[in-house]
Amino acid sequence: MFSSVWRNIETQLTSYYFRGLSKLTAHGAAVSASPGAGAGSLKRCLVVPLLSRVNLQKLRTVGLRGMHSSLEDVTLDSMQVKILPALQDNYMYLIVDSKTKEAAVVDPVDPELVIKTVKESNVKLNKVLTTHHHWDHAGGNERLVKMWDGKLEVYGGDERIGAMNHKVCQDETFTIGTLKVRCLSTPCHTSGHICYYVTATNSNEAGAVFTGDTLFQGGCGRFFEGTPEEMYDALCAKLSALPDDTKVFCGHEYTLQNMSFARHVEPDNKNVQNRIEWAKLRRATKDPTVPSTIGEEKLWNPFMRVHEATVQNHAGISANPIGTMEALRKEKDNFKA
């Protein structure tokens, strides 16, 4: 019964917003529901007090249907990246070429939100970039392909990815309008994980890399199907080689949890301390903490700092960055903030 009531509440809130939220919030009194009250009483009890506590402007973008963060746009010279929250803490991304308005979506686990955003933005979606096969990243592919009117090219590096029709490997390239996409093979979290590095053609401006569950802000993914050597290669060879001003769009909102561990590893690192305070302010208003940059990750992410003496000393392993990577991951797996 409660689930059906909640669906009705969501529908009401949506309709109230489009009809004008001020009409709903003119009265703040709550209606108490007795133990034997019906669904109507329960709805009244829940809706009015709830809205009186919600920032109404944030409700427009965060909403109540699983959105952990507000929708936000990041504009670079040649592209726009629309940050789309999904599930409990996932991020999808809509990449739009500023010149042609061609677009690609990264890990579209919530096809309905993707289609809504594409239509509202009046862009031409024709590609899906899948970082890896886990359901919270690839689970919406097949549904999106069925729901979308046009043809979609679905990229990925693993046969387990649903609806994939373009399998890619290290250094393979393709385009989104005038934007160039280079694939980076980063196996470890899963054996077929791909990061997508997107840049403007014939330009030196900052690019963007979509790292899925390989590189997080302040952390990295678990080694489900790989080794410390592979994660070291992914983070400290391939991703570290990108320009420092490259924007990093990762797959989850894990910043505060990861930064807590980073502070545990390097308690005197001012970059970590400052980022934690910044992230707390962002999360207090449900704003996303992505993106960071490659250069910033080198300053505060312990998994990209395994060459640093302070990180190696914490791990108890000197002059061995791969051993440090392994020790940090094992510790992080059981770390309680």
UniProtKB/TrEMBL annotation:
Pathway: Secondary metabolite metabolism; methylglyoxal degradation; (R)-lactate from methylglyoxal: step 2/2. SUPFAM superfamilies: Metallo-hydrolase/oxidoreductase. The keyword DNA-binding does not apply. Residues 89-252 form the Metallo-beta-lactamase domain. It comes from the Eukaryota. It holds the Pfam family Lactamase_B. InterPro entries: Clx_II_MBL, HAGH_C, Hydroxyacylglutathione_Hdrlase, Metallo-B-lactamas, RibonucZ/Hydroxyglut_hydro. GO terms for molecular function: hydrolase activity. It is an enzyme of class 3 (hydrolase). CDD domains: hydroxyacylglutathione_hydrolase_MBL-fold. Keywords: Hydrolase, Metal-binding, Zinc. Its EC number is 3.1.2.6. It catalyses: an S-(2-hydroxyacyl)glutathione + H2O = a 2-hydroxy carboxylate + glutathione + H(+). Its cofactor is Zn(2+). Signal peptide: none annotated. Belongs to the metallo-beta-lactamase superfamily. Glyoxalase II family. HAMAP family: Glyoxalase_2 (MF_01374). This is hydroxyacylglutathione hydrolase.
